[in-house]
Amino acid sequence: MSLLTIYPDDQPQQGMRYTDFADIARELAIIGVKFERWTANRELTTDADQATIIAAYQESVDNLKRTYAFQSVDVINLSPDHPQKAEFRNKFLAEHTHDDFEVRFFIDGCGLFYLHVGNKVYGVLCAKGDLISVPDHTTHWFDMGENPNFKAIRLFTTQEGWVARFTGSDIAKAFPTFDEIFAEMAAELK
């Protein structure tokens, strides 16, 4: 399930929540963030390789490449047994920006983007089927949890791919982690 929580940037315990897809898309559009739902044109196995995954979404990927002049596409696949999961998590958790805008489409699993825009922080829990675009120079971080379990297509406007400019801020430490949000959602569903 997708979730958007909008917090004052100095009050990480005081957030307004949205769970309806249309509401999430509307609120994110206000800050220039695209939020869509995609589906594959064929079934994918859990062990599908990068080429198979991209081929399953080829028409949508090609449309994005034409529209935004993306130069490179890849698939990130992190699982609880990934040997570098802690290293990746720490890198993505640090607040940063990119010179190009970031697009992620979640093929499986979920992850939590935090976008720091003005005096607000937008926590976006993305789930399977969600596409999110983060505009260039938007301050943000990503939490995949202590035991990540997601696959996502990433699109870049440069050949270099993911290049971050870290802000040095520790704001991410003040906001709920992926694991805390996920546990809270699970408790609410009981």
Describe what this molecule looks like in 3D:
The protein has five helices and eleven strands. The chain is of the alpha+beta class. It has one domain (3-189): Sandwich (Jelly Rolls). The strands form two sheets. Strands 1, 2, 3, 4, 6, 7, 8, 9 and 10 form a nine-stranded antiparallel β-sheet that branches. The longest helix has 12 residues, at 178-189. The two termini are 15 Å apart.
Amount of helix: 25-40%
Shape: globular
CATH superfamily: Jelly Rolls
Here the CATH topology equals Jelly Rolls
Helix segment tally: 5
**What is the mean pLDDT?**
89
Q: Give the ordered list of helices and strands.
A: EEHEHHEHEEEEEEEH
User: What Rg do the Cα atoms give?
Assistant: 16 Å
Which band does the percent of strand residues land in? 25-35%
